Amino acid sequence: MLKALVFDMDGTITKLTLPLEAMRQDTKDYYVERGFPSELLEPADGISSSTAKAKEYFLSNGLQLSEWEKMEAEVDQILSQHEGFAAANAVLIEGTLDIIGEIRHSGIFTAILTNNGRLAVNKIMEQLPLVDYFDIIQTRHESPQPKPYPDGLLKLAVELGITPNEMVYVGDALIDATAARRAGIEFWGVATGETPADVLRDAGASIVFRSLAGVLDEVRNRC
Predict the structure, then answer these.
(1) Domain range for residue 197?
(2) Which end is more exposed in the chain, N or C (fewer Cβ atoms within 10 Å of the end residue's Cβ)?
(3) Is there a contact between 8 and 188 (Cβ–Cβ < 8 Å)?
(4) d(CA 97, CA 202)
């Protein structure tokens, strides 16, 4: 039984304004400048996969955990700068709050899981009334590990008092699909962000919608 819908933020409920390519490149550049071999990075590597590779490399080559944590904090500051600029221009995808409101009216929990940082999300919430429409808004700073790790989704299931098979994750990106698959949670794709519908299907989306209006129709069918 469907009890909760968890939504990604950028490209799913808000228009995609993050400079994702710049953020990915800045992350890679940071690690390479500190000695990470550039040949170990692939063009497809994003922020999370680049960080995972860098962590494994540096720790296996004698870096102390405390030193790695300092590097992670510095990367977080770089990402937060990008996010802060984007947050100042955050705009909802048309019709989002009406759709979320109807979903909540049907008795289903709604939540957000985003890899954005808390400061940027707080800035977005100063402009957009998200707190009135979502039971929990969780950023990478509250997730044990950010997407594509499943930790954030599993933590939300616990906090909402439901099991993973009672939850669906809705997102626009491959990283969303990966997190859902690893958590054992059904994934619905929305082709409103950076990833085409066919790519979301190939990544494991059980359904792909052109917009969140399709999500509302599916919820009505299941309730």
Answers:
(1) 4-17+91-222
(2) N
(3) no
(4) 29
Count: domains in the chain: 2
The amino acid at 47? I
Q: What is the mean pLDDT of residues 19-30?
A: 94
Residues 63 and 122 in one domain: no
Verify that 129 and 175 share a domain, yes or no: yes
- Contact status, residue 137 vs residue 125, Cβ threshold 8 Å: yes
Looking at the fold, whether 147 and 191 belong to one and the same domain comes out as yes
**Nearest alpha carbon to residue 113 among 23, 55, 69, 175:** 175
Q: Which of 223, 182, 183, 181 is nearest to 206 (CA)?
A: 181
Q: What is the mean pLDDT of residues 170-196?
A: 96
**Domain end marker among 42, 62, 87:** 87
Q: What is the CATH number of the domain that holds 107?
A: 3.40.50.1000
Closest to 48 in 3D by CA, of 144, 121, 145, 120: 145
User: pLDDT per residue over 141-167, tens digit each?
Assistant: 999 999 999 999 999 999 999 999 999
Q: What does the pLDDT average to over 103-121?
A: 96
CA distances to 104, 138, 172 from 116, in Å: 24, 9, 15
Question: Is residue 88 over pLDDT 90?
Answer: no
- Give, to the nearest 10 degrees, the angle between helix 47-60 and helix 20-33: 10
